[in-house]
Amino acid sequence: MDLKLEGKRAIVCASSKGLGKACATSLAREGAHVLMNGRTESTLEEAADEVRKTARGQVDAICCDVTTEEGRARLLQAFLHPDILVNNAGGPPAGDFREWSLNEWQAALNANMLTPIELIRASVDGMCERGFGRIVNITSSAVKAPISTLGLSNGARAGLTGFVAGVARQIADKGVTINGILPGAFETDRMRSNIEHVAKKTGTSFEKEYETRKARIPAKRYGDPEEFGELCAFLCSAQAGYITGQNIVIDGGNYPGTL
Question: Torsion over CA of 118, 124, 125 and 129, rounded to 10 degrees?
């Protein structure tokens, strides 16, 4: 299927590894001009070189911290008039809510709620004027099924989801969509660090916790980031123009609800 993304300008935040990198890979493979982003220059450049190997579109990279005002300004100045915005940020640490300070809450809200909102605010009107735009927010399956040890993430990502629910419908007639992808357990550094946290807290081994969690997933495996990237590319496609304001869970069947 031709997703009609050739020449579209796509910003993919936090794309030096993990799910963000997978999204950048899929979009570039479809012919989009992709701007990758990360905070560690060597890691980012290595990732960009890897994405270029399969890309049909141009791939650029800019090292900056998009959770800061300066970083967002640099990102948007480097890539004026994006057609596609993929919001992504590393999740806050796991832990017990009794131990989190106000500063930790503010950092989580800034990274996982306020930064995406600011990037949407800066780019959405231009998309509306041009009659095409795709915004994808990478959140978490915890938006629908909260995970007790990820309270910082639960709260911040649920706030972003509530905000988008209103905005997406205000601009639905302008050719611009906003959707969320809610990943479950994927083979990423983030997932492994969460497993390490739980293993240490419970006194078990990483390997045992890794296998126990995998066995609970109906698909009996962890997700491949490439699967995630392909879903992101489809939501950014011309064919997905009638999908907006939705939160799509991709978790191997782990979420047990009907809605």
Answer: 160
Tell me what pLDDT residue 258 has: 86
Q: What is the CATH number of domain 9-184+224-249?
A: 3.40.50.720
Domain range annotation of the chain? 9-184+224-249, 186-222
Q: Determine the Cα–Cα distance for residues 239 and 30; give it in Å rounded to an integer.
A: 13
Number of CB atoms found within 10 A of residue 6's CB: 12
Question: Strands of 9-12's sheet, edge to edge?
Answer: 59-63, 33-38, 9-12, 84-87, 133-138, 176-183, 247-250
The count of residues in the chain is 259
* Tens-digit pLDDT profile for residues 91-101: 887 788 898 89
Residue 187 — very low, low, confident or very high, per pLDDT cuts 50/70/90?
Answer: very high
Distance CA 226, CA 85 (A): 18
Q: Which of 257, 248, 245 is nearest to 230 (CA)?
A: 248
CA 89, CA 112: separation in Å to the nearest integer?
Answer: 6
Give the per-residue SS3 of the chain.
Answer: CCCCCCCCEEEECCCCCHHHHHHHHHHHHCCCEEEEEECCHHHHHHHHHHHHCCCCCCEEEEECCCCCHHHHHHHHHHCCCCCEEEECCCCCCCCCHHHCCHHHHHHHHHHHHHHHHHHHHHHHHHHHHHCCEEEEEECCHHHCCCCHHHHHHHHHHHHHHHHHHHHHHHCHHHCEEEEEEEECCECCHHHHHHHHHHHHHHCCCHHHHHHHHHHHCCCCCCECHHHHHHHHHHHCCHHHCCCCCCEEEECCCCCCCCC
Strand partners, 86: 12, 136
